[in-house]
Amino acid sequence: MSDTYNLDTRLIHENSDFEEGAVNKPIYQSTSFAYDTAEELSQVFKQQAQGFTYTRINNPTVAVFEERMAKLEGGVGAIACSSGMAAIATAVLSLVEKGDQIVAGNSLFGGTYSLLQNDLARWGIDTTFVDTSNLDSIRSAINDKTRLIYLESIGNPKLDIPDIKAVSEIAHNNSIPLVVDNTFLTPYILQIKEWGADIVIHSTSKYINGSANSIGGIIVDLGTFNWKKRNTSGFEDYYQFGPFAYLAKIRQDLFRNLGVCSSPYNASMNITGLETLAVRMDKHCKNALKLAEFLAEHSLPLRVNYPGLASHSQHQLARKQLGNQFGGVLTFELEDQGQCFKFINSLKLARNLANIGDIRTLVIHPASTIYWRLDEDKQRELGVTPGLIRVSIGIENPDDIIKDVKQALEAIS
Ligand SMILES: *Cc1c(COP(=O)(O)O)cnc(C)c1O
Q1: What is 352-399 written as a DSSP string?
Q2: Distance of CA 2 from the midpoint of ligand 1 (Å)
Q3: Which residue among 205, 269, 390 has the greatest number of ligand 1 atoms within 8 angstroms of its CB, and so is best to mutate?
């Protein structure tokens, strides 16, 4: 498919030519792939010939999803994983060794924060968490053991916006890659390669899939980082793969050995999801702005946080980086947990559950759910207050979403 088409057209037509004229890639629900000769199988194993061997390593259906995601992000290749967390853990662990250090934003998805703060720390890999709006704090956090900078394209749950270009310059001045979790925005809203990121990660469980029917994640190498110049060891065996060094290392090493592959069925669900990404994102963003404006006008919320509102402290940066679409997630604050619970229990349309990026409108009280293990001080540091409600706005009719929120706010006043 020609790259001259716009992204929304490419989403629909890319790779829609398969065996027997099928417009969808069949689901290759097979663990393993046979070859006529021992020589052929050996060559495929040694990557001297193209082909599939075992679905824990690669699979034709999963490969189509990987190709599509790589193309959408403008990358050299991708590796689909069993979950977003599997993708994050695999991508990060493939860049570090015992004694290394990571610099990460301090507004991160709960699982990512816990992985870096607890698990990696136990294995001798330290993470320094920084306020990404303070470039000096990023610069001073970097030392000669730093192997990557990790960010989310919109911080969660603070909904803060990192200046990706500026952070990427800091990373590249130190010969380390910038890894960005772009789950909240998707390549339809933010072409992160243009802003200097090197590796992009998605929890495809969210907007990429869209209908909340498959847990999955993906790692895309944007082809911008020179792995040979990397200021550490561990890649020597993979230099022969040139721009594919990082992906080759992952696939032949941690990805294979941890067994974090995507199922072919989930990959197929995600391919279907991708086809409607543009229309869904347009509606998510439009509905989110409408709800944010409604909440900002309403007397009850103490604060409404949405990058698309002029009142957002980084609205100008959001405009510069994102244009005029700001994603489908907003937060707002009520007085306390009691009010939040009453609000959530009064909703009739929005669902109370732990997810974002679904076509359905979802709400959650983060302090008592996703972040319940952390004490209140730690929660506040991450932007989670007792009165905080997070909304992932769906693609229903916006009048119905607002009507539901309005009646639930009336129920608590
Ligand atoms: C959900 C999410 C993850 C984790 O993804 P899973 O598919 O649930 O493992 C990581 N990052 C962000 C920003 C997320 O929203």
Answers
A1: ESS--S-SS-EEE-GGGTTTTTS-HHHHHHTT--TTEEEEE--SS-HH
A2: 31
A3: 205
**How open is the CA angle 202-153-201, to the nearest 5 degrees?**
20
- Strand order from edge to edge, sheet including 351-352: 303-305, 329-333, 388-392, 362-364, 351-352
Q: Given a cut of 60, is residue 58 above it in pLDDT? A: yes
Kindly state the tokens that stand for 159.
């909904």
Which residues, in sequence order, are bridge partners of residue 149? 103, 178
For residue 358, how far is its CA from the centre of ligand 1 (angstroms)?
13
Which of 18-27, 365-374, 394-403 holds the top average pLDDT?
394-403
Task: From 82, 83, 85, 218, give the residue whose CB has the most ligand 1 atoms within 8 Å, as the site to mutate.
Answer: 85
In the structure, which protein residues have their CB atom closer than 6 angstroms to any atom of ligand 1?
83-85, 109, 111-112, 152, 156, 181, 183-184, 203, 205-206, 215, 217, 356
Query: Over the stretch 269-316, which tens digit does the pLDDT of each residue have?
Result: 999 999 999 999 999 999 999 999 999 999 999 999 999 999 999 999
